[in-house]
Amino acid sequence: MHALKPWHIAVLVVVLILLFGAKRLPDAARSLGRSLRIIKAETKSLADDDRDLAGKADAQAGYQPYPPQQSAPPQQPYQGTVQQPVVDPVQRAREN
Question: From CA 42, how far away is CA 52, in angstroms rounded?
Answer without folding.
Answer: 15
